[in-house]
Amino acid sequence: MINASDAVGRQATVYSLVIPIFNEEAVLPLLVRRIGMLLDALDGRAEAIFVDDGSRDTSVIFLRGMAAEDDRFRLIELSRNFGHQIAITAGMDAAAGEAVIVMDADLQDPPEVVLDLVAKWKEGYEIVYARRIRREGETWFKRASASIFYRLIEKMTSVDIPRDVGDFRLIGRKALETFKRMPERDRFVRGMFGWMGFKQTAVPFERPMRAAGETKYPFWKMVRLAVHGIVSFSDKPLRLALWAGLAISGLAALLGLYAVFSWLFVSGVVHGWTSTVVIISFLSGINLLMTGVIGLYVGGIHAEVKRRPLYVVDRLTGFEEAIAAMNN
Ligand code: UDP
Ligand code: MG
């Protein structure tokens, strides 16, 4: 794990921006310019940590150049694609600031909003998240599925996971240190911040379109994130079997009564195989479904007991100051 935060050289850093990058070459020139302006506008020493999540385009070359040129830019290159949630974890591990701001690379999280987040932090909030009040240019399907997901997870878990909030947020040092003590592999970062408590508040913003390039969250990746979110913050699906079992037993008892009734009072009834086939296939469906649900949780346990590191760093650029300070 990267632990640059105790480095003497960066002690004075007030703000750290953490930006995950996966094949974002189309948006990088614009992004870097806007981030540079934001760093200037912030009222304290600020750094921008880009985390390359195994990009297969020219993003890395561009960012290496930037990080070598401007000493406020740093780059962490992961050894392969570990996924968005792990990439932001790597960035937060390396952040030296008193306040850490996580934002997307595609400028859907507008840099100006960061100043509003900072203002709330100064009022004493430990975690300030940005809430999307409108989403521009995203497909009807994406908005509908996101909305269903936030409402579903709200019903399924006792942890407060705020609605319509992504990973765009500011967290203070206390929350960051708490986050670093949460070693779980199955990372649903927005839920983890909901779990830890502290004084939290929201800043509303209108989510613009992606500035360039296309989404790195295709449908199956969104489903995976949703399933991970639910499995790691709720055990309700496990208890589904109980209720399904009870309901089906009830139906079976009624069916039994009906069979006895017809045996007693109706003469010569031969029940066709239709009902048998329907009942057997229905029950085996339920059985397989519940085995799958249990499998999800067992898979989670399996990933957890292997105790592998969360991510692997291939190369760092722009951390020289911090590394030199550690070696002294
Ligand atoms: N991202 C990443 N690794 C991945 C997928 C995405 O680091 O495997 C980054 C991506 O570069 C962007 C952020 O996560 O900075 C959000 O992705 P995107 O904007 O494509 O998601 P959307 O806004 O469409 O949900
Ligand atoms: Mg986006």
UniProtKB/TrEMBL annotation:
Q: List locations, semicolon-separated.
A: Membrane
Looking at the record, the residues that make up the Glycosyltransferase 2-like domain are 16-177
What are the UniProt keywords, alphabetically? Glycosyltransferase, Membrane, Transferase, Transmembrane, Transmembrane helix
Q: How does it sit in the membrane?
A: Multi-pass membrane protein
Query: Does the keyword Transmembrane helix belong to this entry?
Result: yes
TM spans (from-to): 240-265, 277-298
Lineage: superkingdom:
Bacteria
| Chief location bin | membrane
InterPro entries in alphabetical order: Glyco_trans_2-like (IPR001173), Glycosyltransferase_2 (IPR050256), Nucleotide-diphossugar_trans (IPR029044)
Q: Which PANTHER family match?
A: PROPHAGE BACTOPRENOL GLUCOSYL TRANSFERASE HOMOLOG (PTHR48090:SF1), UNDECAPRENYL-PHOSPHATE 4-DEOXY-4-FORMAMIDO-L-ARABINOSE TRANSFERASE-RELATED (PTHR48090)
Q: What name does UniProt use for this protein?
A: Glycosyltransferase family 2 protein
Question: What organism is recorded for this protein?
Answer: Mesorhizobium caraganae
